[in-house]
Amino acid sequence: MAHERYSLQLYDHLTEGVDLTGKDVLEVGSGRGGGAVFIHQTMNPRQMVGVDIASEAVDFCNRTHTQDGLSYKVGDAEKLPFEDDTMDVVLNLESSHCYPSMDAFLGEVKRVLRPGGLFLYADHRPRSHENAFRKKLQNSGMRIAREADITPNVIRAMEMDQERKLALIHERVPKSMANSIREFAATDDSTLRHEFVSGKRWYFSLTMENAAA
Ligand SMILES: C[S@@+](CC[C@H](N)C(=O)[O-])C[C@H]1O[C@@H](n2cnc3c(N)ncnc32)[C@H](O)[C@@H]1O
């Protein structure tokens, strides 16, 4: 897992000080599933479920990460395939910027969380959207319990992982596609990195609490 160190550090940061032992934990936008494996292996939840809209990613996870108490499901962040009040913790990491409706997503997180449950959340947004974004958080019915601007940490992680990414792109990506893949991988010359460095975009982490009934 050494090459996944920087993404896993983000999972570690989000769950810092949260005891997941015996808890029902859901990750929305679980991708290729490594974060859910990390939580499942190191934090002893009762069950760890990953949900992603991409069925290929979910199939990959169910073929690759086969451990009791760990599962993956196809599902949409705006229509989560779970009953009300069934999760103690919902995680969401670098996925929500893809969702058409933040209000619908936040409503779903609140719906599936038990009273007193936690929403552990990290993503990035343009600074120019900050006020509107904060209003959505305020209107979600959940309370912000912890908040951090982790942009400098993310920039540093990008720098430290840059050489590995460039070597992989050089080795595996056809020249005609290299520019777009560098953008996707957020290497030093990418728009995303420039936006973080110039302050146009910020990377936040949040802990939100679903008020006890
Ligand atoms: C950048 S990946 C992040 C994966 C993982 N959280 C991580 O940090 O490694 C974003 C993921 O969000 C998923 N996603 C995008 N829109 C979604 C939606 N509406 N509902 C559920 N998942 C979605 C994508 O398929 C993708 O796997």
Largest sheet: 7 strands, mixed
CATH fold-level name of the largest domain: Rossmann fold
Overall pLDDT: 95
Q: What would CATH call the class of the largest domain?
A: Alpha Beta
Proportion of β residues? Answer: 25-35%
Question: Uncertain regions: pLDDT < 50 for 5+ in a row?
Answer: none
Which series of helices and strands comes N to C?
HEHEHEEHEHEHHHE
What structural keywords apply?
single chain; about 210 residues; Rossmann fold; seven-stranded mixed β-sheet; 8 helices; 7 strands; about 40% helix; globular; binds S-adenosylmethionine
Describe this structure in words.
This protein is of the alpha/beta class and 213 residues long. The chain folds into two domains: 2-150 and 202-210, Rossmann fold (3-Layer(aba) Sandwich); 154-195, no CATH class. The chain is 42% helix and 26% strand. It contains eight helices and seven strands. The protein has helices spanning 5-14, 34-43, 55-64, 102-112, 130-138, 151-172, 175-184, 191-198; strands spanning 24-28, 47-52, 70-74, 87-93, 113-126, 142-149, 201-210. The protein has a seven-stranded mixed β-sheet, with helices on both faces. Strand 2 (47-52), helix 3 and strand 3 form a beta-alpha-beta unit. The longest helix has 22 residues, at 151-172. It is globular and about 55 Å long. The structure holds S-adenosylmethionine. S-adenosylmethionine is lined by residues 7, 28-31, 35, 52-54, 57, 76-78, 93-95, 98-99.
